[in-house]
Amino acid sequence: MEFTGGERIKNWFREHIRIPLGVTIAICLLPVVLTGLFYFLRSSRGVMDWATAYISAPVRSFLGLLSSIYPFAIMEILCTAAGVFLIYYIIKAFRDSGRRREKWKILGKRLLPILVVACYIWGLFCWLWNSGYHATGFAERYDLSSNGISKEDLVSVTQLFADRANELSYLVERNNDGSVLTSRREIFADSMSIYQNISTEFPSLRGRLFAPKPMLYSWLMSITGYGGVYFALTGESMINTQVPLFSMPSLVAHEHSHQLGVFAEDEASFVGILASVKSENLLFEYSGYMEGLNFLLNALMIAGGTPGSGPSEEWFEIVSGLSENVIRDRQERAMFWATRTMSNTGINFLDRFLTTVAETANDAVNTVYDGFLRSQNQELGIRSYGACVDLLVVYFIDEASTPEVEVVEDES
After folding, report:
1. Does residue 138 sit within a domain?
2. Are 80 and 209 part of one and the same domain?
3. Are 337 and 362 contacting, i.e. CB atoms less than 8 angstroms apart?
4. Are residues 116 and 243 part of one domain?
5. Same domain? 128 vs 252
6. Cα separation of the two ends of the chain
7. Which residue range forms the structural domain that includes residue 83?
């Protein structure tokens, strides 16, 4: 009987490499023990603080250093390869087991390695990332937590952000059509230094940053409604390259905050905005104020109003004072996200089908991610992206409440 190359390799391993049964059982049980240990200990704040400082942070930094060697996203390559291999392996396992007796026993043995690998991945993810959701948060560490904010304070800070966005909107360079003139490469390069200023105020943000990477699957990110993602198992920050360029700097800053150990989404949004507006980089400042203004206006739209009554009076007043450039950029971003699930092939039935599929995918991803956040002690779920409003008001209220003093030169 003549063997194929794959069968010869298998036979060689069977003859020369024998793994004791106890070792095999230990390998299979180790990820279960690690994961179970995490769930048992995650309610202990001290243990989670220790894990994020001495396990999560150094390991993620090392993984980020390794992945930074390559200009493309390792995570996307690994996920694509794993998906293709998984489909092939499962189909082959069903096909091979169907030809023999005791097929369910054979099928179980074939699928067990997949289950073990999945357990290892989840166990590592729990200790490298999920542990941060149960550790001391950024706001608590720096005493920025709030039991609530007043409408007056919200109006003041929103007006501050609107004024700054108006001012900067005329300073950033633009194309003839009014779009912000920059490049993704320039944004990525400049992002490496934007945390220098605020790291003096917040020492935990002094860690090493690694360059963000453009996502190959940006179209998928657009459909599901995400501007970026940080993957702890490779230490990479990946950015959706389809988003409007003026909003990309604040998105990059948000993902960088995850690299630096800010886990909760509301805190990462706040830190990303703060790093941007304090960066002394004109484009990042504008992007940060625009991002913050979006959060604040969304909150002000319903503040103090009754359900179904529409935006508050203060919301209309601030929006009516926005500059033409700010209005144009806000419309560009709104149009982008509003049409991200719409297909436009020109074939009606195909467009309807593809749009339905995209909307279903968007809802499914949001539901899964919302459930994940809630399972990790993030009670607001996806809405936690908007909870950074409290942090913005707490941090900027003194600046918003301080009147600007005009300096008059003495002509005498």
Report:
1. no
2. no
3. no
4. no
5. no
6. 109
7. 5-133
Q: What is the pLDDT of residues 344-356, one digit of tens each?
A: 555 555 545 555 6
Is the domain of 106 the same as that of 170?
no
Asked if pLDDT for residue 110 goes beyond 80, the answer is: no
- Indicate the burial class of 297 (C-beta count within 10 angstroms; 0-12, 13-18, 19 or more): buried
**Residue 309 clears pLDDT 70, i.e. is over it:** no
Are 281 and 190 spatial neighbours (Cβ–Cβ below 8 Å)?
Answer: yes
Residue 372 has pLDDT above 50, yes or no: no
Tokens of 242: 């389809």
Q: Which residues of 252-276 are buried (b: 16+ CB within 10 A; e: fewer)?
A: bbbbbbbbbbbbbbbbbbbbbbbbb
Are 124 and 189 members of one domain? Answer: no
Query: Do 126 and 158 have their domain in common?
Result: no
Whole-number Å distance between alpha carbons of 210 and 236: 8
Please compute the mean of the pLDDT values over residues 43-57 and round it to a whole number: 94
Q: What is the pTM of this model?
A: 0.83
Q: Is 90 within the bounds of a domain?
A: yes
User: What would the pLDDT profile of 245-258 be if each residue is shown by its tens digit?
Assistant: 999 999 999 999 99
